[in-house]
Amino acid sequence: MYKFNGNGNNGHLAWILQRISGVAVAVCGVIIFIQIALNGGHAFSSWLLLPILAFGLWHAFSGFKMITDDYVECTSLRLILQIFYWIAGVAVGAIGLAAIMPFFG
Which of 64, 86, 93, 100 fits a disulfide with 49 by CB distance 3.0 to 4.6 angstroms? Predict the structure, then answer.
């Protein structure tokens, strides 16, 4: 059974940032898709890669955290999962940066 342990403003900022990051990922993705479609699949603005990586990582791992907060009751398991999310986020971010660096020169 769910037990509420916060106040009325608990998680409000995270909820707003989740929506903002989702819109940012969608906008960047649509712009890249249009550029690829117009250029025959050969070119797009590389400056969009960093925002889509940053906002995409934020959106994904913030979503994982929200799901964990909602459905994992055990505090120690929740902490272990959040540590795992941080490690995975840093690793995926480093791999993503390594993958997009050749596009910047």
Answer: 100
Residues 15-61: tens digit of each pLDDT: 899 999 999 999 999 998 898 888 887 777 888 889 999 999 999 99
In contact, 100 and 42? CB cutoff 8 Å: no
Which residue, 52, 51, 65, 53, is CA-closest to 18?
65
Query: CATH number of the domain at 12-104, please?
Result: 1.20.1300.10
Q: Kindly report the pTM of this predicted structure.
A: 0.78
Q: Where are the domains of the chain?
A: 12-104
CA separation for the pair 36, 43 (Å, rounded): 6
Q: Give the angle subtended at the CA of 94 by the CAs of 21 and 55, to the nearest 5°.
A: 5
* Cα–Cα nearest to 63, from 25, 6, 101, 94: 25
